[in-house]
Structures are given as C-alpha cells and as structure tokens.
Amino acid sequence: MFQETKTTLTDAWSWLFNTDDFAFAFIVTATVLLVIALITLIFSKSKKISPPLPPGPKSLPLVGNLLSLDPELHTYFESLGKTYGPIVKLWLGHKVGIVINSPVLAREVLKDQDTIFANRDVPAAGYEATYGGKDIVWTPYGPKWRMLRRVCVNEMLSKSTLDSFNDLRRREIRETMGYFYSRVGSPVDIGEQTFLTMMNVITSMMWGGTVKGDDRAGLGTEFRLVVNEITQLLGTPNVSDFYPGLARFDLQGVRKKMKVVAKKFDDIFEATMKQRQEMDGQEGSTDFLQFLLKLTNNQDAKIPFTMTDLKALLMDMVTGGTDTTSNSVEFALAEMMNKPQIIQKLPEGQKLDLSEKFGIVLKKRIPLVLIPTPRLSNPELYQ
User: Fold this and answer.
1) Which 8-state DSSP code applies to residue 53?
2) Residue 330 and residue 193: Cα distance in Å, rounded?
C-alpha cells in the first residue's frame, strides 16, 4: 500500500514538472499551496482560542525544564516568582506544571476553585501503593471521594472518637517517656520511638493492635523501614510520570519496587482483617476496622465500599499518620536542642507550666438542684 502511494505521488510530481500545459500545472500547484495555507491558518487560530499559558523559563525539547530544577524547590520557585511573576509555567517532560507564588492566587486555587483543581495525576508508584489509586488521595473528586472523606471525618477523625482515645495517647506517651528514662546515658533514636508511639495509637484506633513488650523496638523498626521506603519511592522522580508513554516500560524500576513493598503492607492488612472478622461479636468495643468491614457488607449502599477501598484507606491512615507526625516531632526536638533559647520565648508575664490537668465530668440523669434555706442565707454565717 505504501509503495503504491509513493509511486503515485512520484508520477504526479514528474507529470507536474514535465507537462507542456504550464498554466494547468501552475493552477494545481497554487491550489495545493492554498489548501496547505488554509489548514495551517485554521490550526493556528484554533490554538489561539485557548487561553495562553503563564510565562516561564525557556524549555528544551523533550526534557522541558527538568534539567534546570534546583533540589531546593522552595527557593527555586521563589526566584522564578521574582522573575516571571506570581504564576509561572514549567515544562516537566511532556507535562506542564503551574507554580503559584502568591497568597491571593493560592487562595483562589485551593479554596475558591478547589473542586476544579482537586484531581491529581496518579504517579506510577502511587498507583501500586494504593491499589490502583483507590485511596482518598488519588480518587477523582466526586461521589466516591466524598464517601471516603465522610468515612474518615465522621468515624476516624471525629471529636468524639479522638476524645475517646485520650487515655490511650496518654498511656503511649508515658510508655515512651519510660523507655527514654530507662536508657539515660545511652544513645536513643528519637524518631524511631516517636514513630512507634504514633503507630501504636493509630493502629489501636483502627484495629486495637498495640505493640508492647519486647516486640516494641523490633516491629517498630521494621514497620518504619517499610513506611520510609514507601514515602521514598513516592518522592523519587520517575521518568514514567514525566513521559506517560514510557510508563509501560518502568525504566527506573520504581513500580516494581513499590509492588514488593506494598505486598508487605497488604499481607499485614489481610492477616489483621481476618483476625478481626474471626473476633467479630466476641468483644464489646467497636474499632475503626470493624466499622469499615460492616460498610463492605452493606449491599444497599448507593456507592459500594469494597475491600480494596478499605485497604487503600488503611494505607493512607498508617503512612500519613505515622511518618509525617514522627518527622515533625523529631525536627521540633532537634530545633529545641540546637536552639534552646526558643523554649524561653513565652508571652510576657507567663511561666512555663508542664503540670497535667485531667478530669472527668459525668452528667446526672436528674440534675442536682441547690435549694437555699433560711440558715444558709444568713449573711452573718459568712462573716
């Protein structure tokens, strides 16, 4: 087919320049050129209909601005803002990125127009870690996302739920402080113990499985390594994300590595859910996992909640609630150790008070009523 087309075009071209009828050849040539010009004009106008992209640094073919990115992204974006204005365009391979450097524009994007900018492209590593982008982070904005958010806010993060685990948090903090006190004079890993404390609190809220005793340090170290590996793979620049056409080849092996790490988490979740299902009805307390398992059995729901959705949601809770919190505490303690003067910066007239205040208020079925008597109302008794 290709050879026949090539032969036809060659014959036509030869005829055009060898024909005796020069006027006819000229008309044909002019017509072809006119058609090409019209197509080019229509195409250029159709492109101009779309709003122009914001200004930004010059990009190279294929790679865009990838080679000019600075590891200190916040300072790099600030310098771009000073040069190109509050909104900057960057080409990241075959994808375009928009950088916002203005509080006014940030409010417009993140609050006023949040539903328009709510969706995110699922990276290759995130796709494997969240069971195909089924979690609350990567799920497209819509009824499914609102259902997942409602489950988290109303059950996991509600004020009543957080208040009910106040004793648990106090107990875990005391146990962590006891661990540090027992190792006075010896080096300790603050980040590891903070991570383990948060893991115990979150896993207890989800399925009641707090790690204690001799398994405390060992499991905490293993669990933290897995979470760190997941966050590291999610933050690794991946060619597959910048060039979606190359994603199938997994040139850096990021997707393959994430499959291995995610499998470890999946095995933990499967074993825990199986154990919780076997214990169903034996305990009086209901944890977050039991509530989610009941949602998966609800066949009348307009938006089905599957076991895959359940595990993806647990993945968000464990990774998002442990690693980020432990890192924040670790950096805060390091800052206070390196700059002890910041601890002394209290409001004028106030003193540092670390004493605990804890109490319980019980409401009576029949409220007590104070009835003053003539004897109690005698002012002379209080002089």
Assistant:
1) P
2) 10
Q: What is the CA radius of gyration of the chain?
A: 32
Q: Point out which residues pair with 92 in neighbouring strands.
A: 64, 95
Cβ(113)–Cβ(129) below 8 Å: no
CA gap 202, 318 in Å, rounded: 7
Q: From CA 279, how far away is CA 207, in angstroms rounded?
A: 11
Among residues 166, 158, 171, 263, the alpha carbon closest in space to that of 210 is found at 171
pTM of the full predicted structure? 0.70
Q: How many CA atoms within 13 Å lie on the side-chain side of 65?
A: 19
Per run of 10 residues, the mean pLDDT along the chain (length 383 residues) is: 48 50 54 67 54 89 88 90 94 91 92 90 93 92 91 81 82 88 88 83 71 52 78 89 88 93 86 71 63 78 86 86 81 81 67 64 65 56 52
CA 172, chain centre distance (Å):
26
Closest Cα partner for 120 from 285, 284, 234?
Answer: 234
